[in-house]
Amino acid sequence: MRQFILDKNPDKSGLVVLDAKDYKYLHQVLRSKVGDMISLRLTDGSLKNATVVKINESSKKITIQVCADTDFPHKNLARGVSARQLEENNVKVEYWLFQFIPKMQKFEQIVRQATECGVHKIIPLIGDYTEKNSILALQNSKKERIERIIKEARQQSGSPVETVVEKACSVAEAVELWNKNENKQGFVLCERDDLSENLHKVLSECRDIQKIGIVVGNEGGISKEEVNFLKEKGFFHIVHFSVNILRCETAALYGIAAVQTAV
How far apart are CA 193 and CA 148, in angstroms? Predict the structure, then answer.
């Protein structure tokens, strides 16, 4: 765990009492002990140091104390690169993933991986090849489950980005939302190579990019009409990677990584 994300603010003394799943995760999974240091992501997005000051096994509660930003000689539950180091090295570009809705299990995997990669917004798209069952599953799924997946992914990866999954929408609605932004650049990952542009060339000609959007198809891909609409109305560039045919959950991760390394 690189960081622990709080769902509530510390009290005036800087104390936070955690129970239920948070207690189980910190004490039983991570085996935290009194004196251990934790990197806390507060509700305002700031990162603070904290130490475990009390563990009550009978009531299954663990108390942590927010401390001054200084180094501690105690054991840190985060191994390797800290969340603070990741925050300092974070690239200030917003990444949006426009994901045509796949099966729910795959969508959850995509959410987890996109969160680890620092994607800001995930917009589920309803397209020509989207199955109705997948749409219903996403609409009826518990919001708490998606939020838990995001929280766990951020804690493990140390991502300072507050990833959000937006409400499912049509391609036209997504384009309207995207066009409200300035200093943006968008890409559609496409199996066809006849319309493909060079990713590195497009990005090298851009200046002051603040937002980058990536469109990825579901199991059925993206229809020709949808690709043309995204290009003409949303000004997305069509990109074809000369690799094997990828599953949608692989394509999302591959596309995010390719764009991030090219910026």
Answer: 38
List the Cα angle 230/235/236 in 5-degree steps: 60
- CA dist list (Å): 149 to 30, 109, 154, 162: 18, 9, 9, 12
Amino acid present at 59: S
> pLDDT tens digits for 146-202?
999 999 999 999 999 999 999 999 999 999 999 999 999 999 998 777 777 888 888
pLDDT category of residue 45 using cuts at 50, 70 and 90: confident
How far is the C-alpha of 112 from the C-alpha of 255, rounded, in Å?
A: 15
Q: Which residue has the tokens 């559609």?
A: 188
Handedness of CA 192, 253, 122, 207 (dihedral sign): negative
pLDDT of 233? 95
Considering the entire predicted model, what is its pTM?
0.85
Q: How far apart are CA 151 and CA 6, in angstroms?
A: 9
